Every structure is written in C-alpha cells, then in structure tokens.
Amino acid sequence: MGAKVIIGLALVVGVASLAIASEAQSANYILERSVIGSAGNSSSSTNYKLGSTLGQSSPIGPSNSTNYKLGAGFWYEVIYPTGDVNRDCVVNVLDLILIRNNLNADPGSSTQASRCDLNGDNRINVLDLILARNQLGQRCQ
Predict the structure, then answer these.
(1) What is the pTM of this model?
(2) What residues does each domain of the chain span?
(3) Closest by alpha carbon to 81, among 115, 36, 46, 111?
(4) Which segments of the chain does DSSP mark as H helices, in order?
(5) For residue 21, what pLDDT band results from cuts at 50, 70 and 90?
C-alpha cells in the first residue's frame, strides 16, 4: 500500500511540475518560466545578439549605452518614479510636455496616454501635471 501512495504522489508532482514549466505565449511574445535556460549559449536575430552564461556574470542593476538599456539580474525590475511618462528613468520637462500633449485624451487610447494618468482617476488633466511637477528630478531605483 505504501508503494502505491509514493507512486501516486510522484505522478501528481510530475504533472504539477509540467504545468508550472509551461510557457505563456501569444502571437507577439513567449514568456518562459525557466530562470536558468540557456547555460552559456547565445541567441540572435538579424540585428541583435545576446550571450548568456549559467550564473550571474555581471552586477545586478541597469547597464546602458547611447541606444540600449539592459537590466541584469535573475529577477530584475526597473521601478519608474511617478511622472516618468517616457520611461527614461528621470522625471523631467520631457515628461511634463508629454502629459501636456495628452491633456483630455483617453488614458486607454495608448500606452503613453495611460502613463500620463498619474493619479489613476481615468482622466489626464492638470492634476497629473502637478503630480509630475512635484516629482521633478526623481530617478529610477
């Protein structure tokens, strides 16, 4: 009887691990759940090449150049300050201009418009401009 229970538990764990290891995908992306996937391999397209290793080869945090930004770390996330509408990691006059240009627009009309609704009241108005102005100079964490 004990062997049947162990085999049953092994079967349940095996099926559960297959469900967890599945990928979320759509026509435009595939999100793999595996953290350690390529172990020293490289991926490329026509314009880009990405090399990877089996471990943390670089410090955790952002790295950038004139044209590209890279977030390094096993679970890396950029936390943008309130008001950073253009996602350049600083709240500045460019963000204020974007909010001004989207005044009275429908926040659901585009990603940029949704970022302009800083207080989440489903309207882009002077209150959002004031919130951004009060955050001028704030940077990403």
Answers:
(1) 0.51
(2) 1-34, 35-76, 78-141
(3) 115
(4) 2-20, 93-101, 111-116, 126-134
(5) very low
Neighbours of 29 (CB within 10 A): 8
Encode pLDDT of 116-135 as tens digits.
999 999 999 999 999 999 99
With tokens 């471990």, the residue in question is 55
Tell the residue number behind the tokens 């006059």, with chain if given.
93
Crossing angle of the two packed helices 126-134 and 93-101, in degrees rounded to 10: 170
| Alpha carbon distance, N-terminus to C-terminus of the chain | 56
Question: Any idea what DSSP says for residue 22?
Answer: P
Reduced to 3 states, what is the DSSP secondary structure of residue 91? coil
Cα–Cα dist 51/36, whole Å = 13
CA–CA distance from 22 to each of 41, 46, 89 (Å)? 21, 27, 33
Q: How many residues does the chain have?
A: 141
Q: 40, 53 in Cβ contact below 8 A?
A: yes
Where does 78-141 sit in CATH, by number?
A: 1.10.1330.10
Question: CA–CA distance from 98 to each of 81, 106, 124, 132 (Å)?
Answer: 15, 14, 11, 11
Neighbouring C-beta atoms of residue 141, cutoff 10 Å = 10
